[in-house]
Amino acid sequence: MTPAEATAPVWRWGAPAAPAFVMLHSLGLDGGSFRWLAEALLSRANVQVIAPDLRGHGSARSQPGEITLPGMAADVVNLLQSLQIDRAHLLGTSMGASVARLAAARDPARWRSVTLVAGGPSAVPALAERGEPALQGGMAAVVDATLQRWFSAASIAADDTFVRYARACLLRMEPAAWAAAWRALATYPAPGPLPGEVPGLCVAGELDVSATPQVVEALRADAAVPEPVALVAGAPHQLTMSDASDVADLLLSHWRP
C-alpha cells in the first residue's frame, strides 16, 4: 500500500469502518514499517491500521527545525480529526512510543488504549550526537550499526524482508532529518503519566539492546502503567516487524478491537 494524503502521509490497511489501531514508527523508519504487524492483525481480527509517516520520515518531508516530538504528536491528533475517527487504539514503538505518550496527553479522550513498545522513559541528552555520522558521511555511514541495534544477527545474515525494508528506509532518509530527529529525541518535554482514563501497556523485546527490558520497565514506571511489562521472548528492538505475529496476539489479548 502507498501513502494517501491526509494531514500527513499515511499508510492504511483494512476496512475504513473497522475499529482503528494508530501506529507510530521508530526513528529512521516510516508508516510502512507496520506492514507486518498490520497483516498479522488483519489475519486475526476485523481492524484497520493507520500509520502516518512522522515529520522528517518517509514522505513527510520537513525542515530540520520542524522535526519535534510535540509537533509529531500534534500531527497525529490532527490526522484522526481529519479522518473523522473519534476513538482509536494507539501504539508507538521506540521514538514512536514517546510520540504516543505526548499524543495521549494532548487528547486523552481520543484513545481507547495506549501501547508503548521498546521505548524509553524520558529524553536522553547524549542522543543528540547520534546524528553526526550521517551529516559527515551520509546515511550509508549509519546503516550497518543501526540494523545491528534493531535486529538479530540471524535476521541480518538472512537479509529478511523486514531488514531489507528497514535498510531502504534508512538510505532514503535525509541526513539532516536523521540528525534533527535524534536531537528531538534528546530534548523532548517529559510526557508524565498516561492519562488515568487511558489503559496502557508496555512491551519489551527480550533481546533488545537499545531499549532493554530494564529500560522499558523504567518507562512503565514513568508512564504509571499498572500492568507489568509484557516481554516478547527472543525479540529484538524492532519487534513489531520481526515478531509481528507475537505482537499481534499480545495486542488482541489485551485490547478489544
Automatic annotation (TrEMBL):
Pfam name, any one: Abhydrolase_1
GO function terms (MF aspect): hydrolase activity
Domain spans labelled AB hydrolase-1: 19-150
Keyword Cell membrane belongs to the record: no
Signal sequence extent: none
Keywords: Hydrolase
PANTHER family: HYDROLASE ALPHA/BETA FOLD FAMILY, PEROXISOMAL MEMBRANE PROTEIN LPX1
Name of the protein in question: Alpha/beta fold hydrolase
